[in-house]
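User: For my dataset I need records formatted as: sequence, then structure tokens, nothing else. Please produce one.
Assistant:
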Amino acid sequence: MGTPRDSTQAQAEVVVDRLEDEYPDSTISLRYSNRLELLIAVILSAQCTDERVNKETKHLFEKYDGPEDYATVDQDELAEDLNSITYYNSKAGYIRDSCATILEDHDGEVPDTMDELTELSGVGRKTANVVLQHGHDIVEGIVVDTHVQRLSRRLGLTEEEYPERIEEDLIEIVPEGSWQEFTHLCIDHGRAVCTAQNPDCGDCVLADVCPSEKGDGEIDLASGDPW
């Protein structure tokens, strides 16, 4: 069991510093060329890997060009184009409805505020944060995906279980200049080392400060279950 820093703020700072050294090129892994493509890719990424999304959007973005194409295509046709994506029928509906709203209420442009984005079909705060950060260069929060949720609990940065509450805790302790980067660092580390089922604590740069470290720790703080 590692020994965390005396405060969650100090713990967050050491986590960021070490992961920055470990993953100096950390960034978003979804592929897109404009704000609409980003929005669609993030909608599709819910409960689906970025790798799978990138494979699907490669042909999707060649076929459809602009919100008009998505808003007017038959939903069954769009769903068929997405059939390797989890929940593709629902996501096809979200994309069509969101693009219709973008056309009707935003002059065909992806909006640039949290309130307007979260009014789009299938768009919650996590999706909106990604679009704001990478589409509009607006950082007003921290994207909490499954990796951020797991690592922030394992590392003792929060005891909250739900993404919005976790984000509230992280905003208070993660340096503001690292809000965007923090998500990508957690994703990279979560994929490479701190996996959900079998984290490689022996090869982790954070093991000595991690209260969930398997060497002596008995509990995975991410789940609350024994190792």
